[in-house]
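Table 4 source record.
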Amino acid sequence: MLAVAGSSGIAALAGCAGGDGGSGETSSDSTDTANTATSGSGGQVYDATFKNAYDGNPVDLHFNSSASQNYSWPAGRAVFAPFLKYSFNKDEFLYGALDDLEITDEEVTLTFRDDLTWSDGDEWTTEDLDIQLQLAQKTGSSLFGYVDDFEMVDDKTAKLILEGPTNPRIIRFELTNFFVDTKAETHEEWVDKGEAEFLQWAWEDPVASGMFQFENKDRQAFEFSRNPEFYKSDNVNFETYLLENTGGGSAQHQALMAGTDVDAATSSFTPPEIAEQFPDHVVEVNIPAKWGYGIVFNHDDPDFGKRKVRQAIAHVINRQSIVDNAGPRTKFTAPIPCGIAPRDQEYWLGDWYDDFETYGVDTQNTEEATQLLEEAGYTKVDGTWQDSEGETLGGRYYSPAGWNDWTTMTQTVVSQLNEFGFDFTVTTKPTNDWFGQYSGGNFKMGSFYWLPGGSRSAFPYFPLYYQLWASDIGGGHAYRQFAQSEQTIPGPDGEDMTLDTPLSTVEEIAKQPDDEGARPFVQQAAWHSHIELPFLGLVSKYEQSWTTNDEWTEPAQDNTNRRVKWPQFWWVHEGDLQYDPN
């Protein structure tokens, strides 16, 4: 069983861009007097326009979700219905286009809504799903790390044949990445063509299955209109939805500050001093990102490929100071750098939790770091660490340009390391070049997200796998060779712990029927992660999503839909975000 567990990290870039009962991530939303919606309230449709701030030129973007580089995922969420969604505040899966989902040891039965229809009036059938799954298999969808085959039962029912016993939560999380975005009529021609050719196809005029249908795009905006064929069209009481190209960062802050320029911003990091200037009707919704700032190492590097050097770096960095400098309102530290989302660690590690090395959450453990570097063969000369040939220990530390909070965190990390005697210089690159630097293995170490992000990072299999395989950078961290080799490391009881391979240990998590069966393998994999440090997890965060309640409704604080990604789309789907003329 081999799955690609990192692809959702791409969507997580928009922001800078736990287990059952174990997530526990909460944060108070900022809201004044709310207009509270009643889901499913049909009635009058208003000639009103919802403007959602967006950073991107729509002319350059398209609707082929498989071609992720130029696919506009917010535009996709406006026009394509999701199979399944996940509520972070209730730890529940919510049906979208699906009507039922049954998972056994051998197969998954998907039953879709009878009223699922395309915007051109054609009925959706499993003929569309058959093409979608064939293309997903062609392009290496991570679903096929668990699914061996599939068959269409009838027009609304399909079966996925599993390779073997698979934790049901993994299948559910995988299905949260699927949308009704493939129509046989428009996509079947690509089944017999090469993968590269399909991934170059820019679908410009999509047939919709979701709340809105595509009308137009130009440099200023994507324009959508209400889709009367949508299965919950009574929930959509306004005519027009715009993804307006405001630009990112400060441009979106200015638009929200004005109070009338836009009605929402899907994800926009906003410092407290800026948020305080927003009008009272601007509502902040905090959603656990299961994603955040960390360090990726090149394990082929003669210095940073050494475990003791990586551990020394972990000891030197004061994680709390990173949070304090970059925004404690929305960020928090990883208690243990072990490949599991921070707020899920106690639940999953259980009685092993206190045995883990924290490397100092709010301290710099310089004595421990010094001992590790000396044991690794380095000496400190005139305040700078050097190897046996007199070469300084450091290099270029890469960080993405334009990510303001990441810039602050990078400056904090590099300052701490250099004060201790490392010799790093910060090099910023545009996002695509930043990815390319790591994909090509042309680096020593640098900033990168240590969790793949999205709802499935709540289940530890996905982040633990991601750290071993680094799918988002094509394994450019050079750890895959070690992930597939037997490893012996110091165990929690002081004795050696031997893993057949780290990868096979992580894969065992996916095969267990429940959390109790998975926990022993989670503990072993997390222990390995915190000793070997394929990545170094430092900080996680809440997504800051923004909407308004002067003319638009919102769900109550305890509503299951409150913290589903993303409010500007799922709330419309459920009738929680409607136009309020009063």
